[in-house]
Design goal:
Layout: E1 3-7, E2 19-26, E3 36-42, E4 48-52, H1 61-68, E5 73-76, H2 79-90, E6 97-99, H3 100-107, H4 116-124, H5 144-155, H6 157-170, H7 174-195
Parallel strand pairs: 1-4, 2-5, 5-6
Antiparallel strand pairs: 2-3, 3-4
Length: 203
């Protein structure tokens, strides 16, 4: 595994292919309060690119271009949060999107464990180390342990997607998943507009 660390944006010329796994690290789980600190990306080749943002510096034209490229599928786990964070701090509507958490909930109905650690363990046979999950991502220096943790969150999403796609097809839920994925930018916009705890489809 190689980790490529970048300040402020992806460098020119980085090609992450037609399906890129993406995750983010923030100061917390409230996009309005907790700033975006790191975006990690992988093409599924065993390498990861980490883009670190210092406070209030979110230009990142190359990353923005990737997030909005209609020919590149953006692969997340819990895309609802990440897409909202990208919209809040980078000012873009990320699309098209695939979410392994949604896919998992649609086909792994035999369990209520849909976190990334459980999913990667079952579908990729890898045990993730989550010790750095609650560390300070806004610090001046990102440690080697933090970098390895951030990279691990995107390195196995392609393998999980492959298994989940087979399960979705087997259970006849591929189209249902696709429509759920397509709704994610709208769901993220609703969250940012203050409707996060509200089910607008309820009576």
């Amino acid at each position: 595994m190689a980790i490529h660390f970048h300040e402020g944006d992806l460098p020119d010329g980085v090609d992450l292919g037609s399906i890129v796994a993406i995750d983010s690290e923030t100061m917390g789980l409230n996009p309005h309060r907790d700033r975006l600190c790191v975006v990690q990306l992988s093409s599924g080749d065993g390498d990861a690119h980490l883009v670190r943002f210092r406070k209030a510096t979110y230009n990142a034209p190359n990353l923005r271009k990737l997030l909005t490229d209609k020919n590149v599928l953006k692969l997340f786990h819990f895309a609802r949060f990440d897409v909202a964070v990208m919209k809040k701090y980078l000012g873009v509507d990320t699309a098209p999107v695939y979410c392994t958490k949604i896919a998992s909930k649609l086909v792994r109905t035999y369990t209520d464990r849909h976190g990334l650690k459980d999913l990667v363990r079952e579908l990729a046979g890898i045990e993730l180390d989550k010790q750095q999950q609650s560390s300070d991502w806004g610090a001046d220096d990102i440690t080697d342990a933090q970098q390895k943790y951030a990279a691990s969150d995107v390195l196995y999403l392609h393998a999980c997607k492959e298994k989940l796609d087979m399960m979705l097809a087997r259970e006849g839920r591929t189209e249902l998943a696709a429509t759920a994925f397509a709704f994610l930018p709208t769901r993220a916009a609703l969250d940012l507009a203050g409707f996060e705890p509200v089910d607008i489809f309820s009576h």
